[in-house]
Amino acid sequence: MSANKSRFSHHARLTLLTLTAILAASCGGALPDPEKASVSMAPKGMPTRNLTGFSDALRCMDNLFLEHRKKGYKLTSTAMNDSTGKLALGVRDMLMTTVSAMSAASGAVTYIDMDQTGGSDSVNVLTEKLLSMNAMRIDMPQAYIRGSISQVDDSVMSGKKGGAITTGIIDIGASQDRSVSSITMDMLLMDMASRTNIPGIHASNMMAVTRSGQGMDAGISGGKIIKAGIQFNVSQDSAESSGQAVRTLVQLGLMELIGKWTKVPYWTCLEIEGNNPQVRAQLREWYDRMTPQDRIKFMQAGLKGSGHYQGNVDSRESDTLRSAIARYQTDRNLVPNGNISFEVYEALMQGKVNLAAMPTETPKQQDVITSANPINLRLSTEGDRTEFRVGEKLVVNLALSRGGYPYCYYRDGDGVIAQIYPNRFQADKQVQGGQPISIPPGSGFALSFSKAGVEEEVMCMASDADIGSLLPKEWLVKELTPMKVRSLDEIAKTMTERSTKMTSIKPSVQRLKVRVR
Length: 517
Prior knowledge:
five-stranded mixed sheet, globular, eight-stranded mixed sheet
């Protein structure tokens, strides 16, 4: 029992289990630093890969989406202009064709042409007319790509006098009529609802192009890209013009960006070894961000595909699952302790195991662009009870009419208020429409009644945008601990005013009062 109980030991007790204990039980002991574990195995010289293009890699990504049961990812992009002013290219069109190529069979990722919602051409005019008649729906993307061609150096090295250049990116010699130029492209994946960057999902790649003659497109003979400590030698066909070089960078950047977003082992499509330190670090980040329930579900599906587990994929721990993990660990020469751990997760991700048993995974859905109607928010208890006895525990069911961002607060009989959702045990801020969640989730903490004759209350607010950051600074304390706020009314009033002003969206508010007898 944590210190939070003593600080919040009023009529609704927040009984917090120690997070460290939960993770220790699931991880099965200390793990080596993923960045250091495989350094000794890496070759001293930089490995190389010869490419004629990324067409095969895009098909590989499509297969990964199928294997990992990914579906329903929707994105758009900004104009992706050349910030240097040296290249006039349709980068957005390149993004569209790349997304189409990597989702041809799986349909996992869809590009939504938001650029067609303004302008005066026939498509835009028709779009505006259909929207005004409520005869058209435009799906809201969950994310958008922001980025640009951030650097174009057309004279990194001139070959007029001969010589060579060697850096961390380029290792190319120059002759009398040979020069080296470079193009750099940066990409970020942004959350559409909050317009903030999604942590850890970015790509920055540079292509060094060799040329004979003068000018950006004169006599191009090939290019080189460094990624994860590997040098990719790109053929002349894939670097025959500045436009083709940019297309190559778009394809590489999108594979990395969408691979990180969907959490599929995209590096296998680039023939990057699984013991690469950057690969291990990426896997470790994904594992650390998973909820305990998601880890269990992944283990169940993965071990079912490998033939070690025959139970249900239901995100519940069991002796059957622990036995299956131990057998898999034995077969993979791991310590057979039966614990859910990063080592088991990594082995499954690297082993190309069959994940057909995994439920189809879709990202949290945004609303569609139709009207500004508020989200319909519903709070309830089991059996719609409004009276409880001392010693009983409260579980609140929350449901939204469409995807959105709910924030929930609890007031006990003494007026002490704490945020109960999102919380460290339910860290996902976004909830899908029509899919109720329970607060608390069943483990981690509890809402227990300890004194009769009082009224206690839950208030939830939901919006299409993430409004959590709009709280005044003095209210921003760790969830499940008392807030320095006078009342739930004060929270509702302040959040509604700030949300309406800053996001033009009025959040929905729903309250649930209960009596303790």
